[in-house]
Amino acid sequence: MNKNGLIYDVHEKPPFGKNLLFAFQQVLAILAATVLVPVLVDQGTGRMSQAAALIGAGVGTIVYLLFTRFKSPVFLGSSFAFISPLITGVSYGYCGIILGSIFAGLVYVIIALIIMKVGAGWINKLMPPVIIGPTVALIGLSLAGSAMNNVMNTAVDTANYNLLGIVVAIVTFLVTVIVSVKGSKGLRMIPFIIGVLAGYVVAAIITLIGYHACGSLYCKIIDFSKFQAVADFNNWLPNITFVGAIKELTSGELLLDGAGVVSILLAFAPVALVVFAEHVADHKNLGSIIGKDLLQEPGLDRTLLGDGVGSMAGAFFGGCPNTTYGEAVGCVAISGNASVKTILTTAIMCIVLAFVYPVMVFIQTIPDCVVGGICIALYGFIAVSGLKMFKDVDLNDSKNLFVVAAILIPGIGGLTLNFGVIDGGVNTFATPLIKISAIACALILGIITNVILKPSKAKKEEKSEKDVA
Fold first, then answer.
1. What does pTM read for this prediction?
2. What's the rounded mean pLDDT across residues 214-221?
């Protein structure tokens, strides 16, 4: 174990069997969010696929690792920030989806090229610990509502509130925690796998006894009927995005026109510009965990190129632009395994599993409450990592206090900026053309507050003299 508490460092390779377990644990950590995005976006069009999104995440991650020269253990998955733009893209067919992802990726590429010329030193000046620490903490805290919706089974409808689901979630969480803290050396490496299995077993027992034996719908925690879809081999082949685009082009069913191109550009490009801030925060967070400054080595330009080109490549297969996943970062922190070989194995495993439909169905039957129990630990570690990053900041200084407040309160409160409206018609909800997320809004407000309250040169010199005295 190294000085950062890691069992395996970035360039170390776990034994083959352990590496597979580590990789599967990462799959479980990123799975729920990665496959949820296409469900939320598709809206019955059939153009988005959960299996394809998993392939896209795997391909995007491999591209990212290549650009960062295998020096940054980051997994890329479907980005929730692009849900609104993707709804716009889907309305223009498969080609609209791919074009939007290209626009988003190009924004990252352009920023990366600028950083190659001017360097990344300005990032540390613009985002000191008093800025980046609360922002990373906010990423974890802002996901707390999502975790609790899963725990209570209210993610889809508040009427589905289920006390038994909460029991399953608590069992999942406690088993994960106990294994992680008090388990044997081998078990401490895979607490998520043990936790998920424990939660699944409890949920299965409740379902089999309460629902199948006694007929109580309230006890239906797991929907075993999903396994019936395995018999239909038409479900086995993922709906690859570029294949659908080729069919559109060759069949003359292309929905994209000049006005559509402009609409897609306006929907995707501004969001990509905003998500850049989250990219920096995630890499700062991971860097603090593994004891390396990833913005210096492999460098912010390379991480941005990997993220941008990886998003384009991933969307070519899975339709969804990708982003760095805090869940994967949390998994690294809890398991103590930062090996980039594990991330590569995870990416390959995602691609392979997408073509093994029975396994995909099993994964889809993992109940929301089990996912919620795991997320309590994952999101908590992200939040605590952010708090650690500004533990040395003097919060007795009112200037620092106001900067932190400017980030945490609007961020947790859910401040968003919406510009323009896409009217989907009478039977659909209006969607913002451009939506700046709560995290991005909080970060921007924090930066502005920090700049405004920045001490003058005279005050800096006065403080320096006092420090010397």
1. 0.78
2. 92
